[in-house]
């Protein structure tokens, strides 16, 4: 295995391409999510998207915040060669709603908001609340891993450049 | 941010290696050996160590369990005393002036000034209580998976060091490369492709 710090920097583009691909799928092919993860009802951008363009010497960063924000600036950044570096998601899996933030380069998950766990009134309630919270976090982790593994299989296959890249290019240019 | 907070952040790790002998005894032994030591009323400014998930202010791994369901759950505690540099500067200036007056000298050497600064920092450290930062850990031993409830670089680095010295196991942070190389089920041919992979250009 490569050295950790070298591999982190060398392959962080994979995380950025993953988030860019997810945005493309969210807009163009929501049904695909249901095939990947049966319990997933929807996955959408919630209220934050960060993009970076590092194709030129200076790093250009676009941050779009706000509910139902216009994402046209983000698309423009993609057209100029940028990629998504951070996304805030809203999703529903089974009957549970989640919101979370995913950073591309590290795949760290932050601001996970899930349904409230039961209140802890007695010491015995603590174990139940902990297990419930782990179960809910596990759903988010499982979802991200499933989507990432799908992406990786696609990214390392010949169909990435043959099929997916032309479709993403077309989507960006519209 | 802890596991039971309304909003949580987590970094995922792959745990490399296996514990020989009794899992619980080995883990409890590692936790006891590296339990956080209270630094209030001490001149020490920084301390780190393990603490109990359900009693982080008074950890006792002799009596409390770290097992909930099939998970090992405990916390990393980082204690730090924050002493304002401006207060140290002010106290040093007063002490230097006092020493000059009592000795009748116009100047103090660099080593004398350094000694005054160290004494003042030590004396303030004795009086200032430490600020506690507690980060929860959920370790699924069977799946070789660990969640650390923080994305802060310094906290993650401290976890990796302390975990290795406590349990003789290595934590590998999961980010795009390690997820692909170590966790996903890609074939040998795909591994080869990964080694030479370069960024995609979505624009012409």
Radius of gyration of chain A: 18 Å
The total beta strand count of chain B reads 7
Form type of chain B: extended
N-end to C-end Cα span of chain A: 41 Å
Tally the structural domains of chain B: 2
The low-pLDDT segments of chain B are none
**What is the mean pLDDT of chain A?**
90
Percent of residues of chain B in helical segments? Answer: 25-40%
Shape label of chain A: globular
Q: Find the structural class of chain A using helix and strand composition.
A: alpha+beta
Strand order of the largest sheet of chain A: 2-1-3-4-5
Q: Please, how many helices of chain A?
A: 6
Give a summary of the structure in a few sentences.
The complex is a heterodimer of chains A (174) and B (204). By secondary structure, chain A is an alpha+beta fold.
Structural commentary:
- The complex is a heterodimer of chains A (174) and B (204).
- Chain A is α+β, with helices and mostly antiparallel strands.
- Chain A has one domain (4-173).
- Helices cover 50% and strands 25% of the residues of chain A.
- Chain A contains six helices and five strands; from the N terminus they run αααββαβββαα.
- Chain A has helices at 4-10, 12-28, 30-36, 72-79, 123-155, 159-173; strands at residues 40-53, 60-65, 83-93, 96-103, 109-113.
- Chain A has a five-stranded antiparallel sheet.
- The model of chain A has no long low-confidence stretch (mean pLDDT 90).
- Chain B is an alpha+beta fold.
- Chain B has two domains: 11-82 and 129-185, no CATH class; 85-127, no CATH class.
- Helix content of chain B is 39%, strand content 23%.
- In chain B, strands 1, 2, 3, 4, 5, 6 and 7 form a seven-stranded antiparallel sheet that branches.
- The model of chain B has no long low-confidence stretch (mean pLDDT 92).
- Classes of the chains: A alpha+beta (174), B alpha+beta (204).
- Chains A and B meet through α1, α2, β5, α5 and α6 of A and β1, α5 and α6 of B.
